Every structure is written in structure tokens, then in C-alpha cells.
Amino acid sequence: MAGRWQFKWTPEGKAFAQALDEIASKKIKVGFLEGETEQDGTSIADIAAWNELGTEDGRIPSRPFMRQSVENHRPEINRHMLAEGNKLAAGASAKEVLSGIGDFFVRNLQKEIRNGDFVPNAPSTVAAKGSDRPLIDTGRMRQSVHFQIDEKDGDH
What is the tally of helices (H) and strands (E) in the chain? Predict the structure, then answer.
């Protein structure tokens, strides 16, 4: 039956198919980019990892803000992904949709840093920084959350 259904794509259909192909060739990374540091030179990515996973010496307990930004917000994530799919179907470009997804996950991660329910700071930390809010000191880590869109490599 090959060739039984002969048709041509509309310009909208071609644009949609091209956007789907472009999206399928990309990946979005959300987190902390290498090179960003605190004033003392400590990597923001390292600080985020220590806080996410905790440290072996126990000085920093695990405060899994990255994992919780997904686990605690599945309904919002599902709604947002559906909305981005609808934008694509309505004619948005792949770049607009990918950027919308990246922006959403950045805001979601920042919200979890700001509002998450985590192990409280030790009294010595509260005394040093003047606050009992985990993950918030200067705000630099929260402000350092970014996204980037890359080509998929063969491994992922």
C-alpha cells in the first residue's frame, strides 16, 4: 500500500515537523554553570552540589533542592509542558518552546531554594550568617541558576 496516500504538507505542517525535529535534536541543561564563583573563589556549582548531596564530614547535611524542584512540583511541570506543546502546535518556534521550558525550570529551582523545607542550619551557621534559612546567605547561589540549550550528543 505504499504510495496510496499521496499528500503534501501545508506550510504550517512543514514548520511544525521541522520544529519537532529541532526539539528532538536538543537538550536543556538547568543548574549551575562552571566558572561562577563566590567572592572567595569557591565554585557556585560546588556549593550547590555540597548542599544537594551533603558532605562526607557531615558539616553540610543534604538539602536536595534540585531533586525536590522536580519531585515536589510534578503537577506544575506537567501543566507547563502541556502549555509549551500547545504553543508549538500554535506556531511557536522550537527556540521559543525550549527557552520557555528552560525558564520554567530555572524559576522552579529558584523557588525551591527559597521556599524548600530543609534540615535547619546549625546554631554556629545561624550565628555566622545571621539567619536560620538554609541555602540562602548572599542569594548568589539562587541567582546563579541558569539554563542552556545544547545539541544532543550520541550518549543521551
Answer: 7, 2
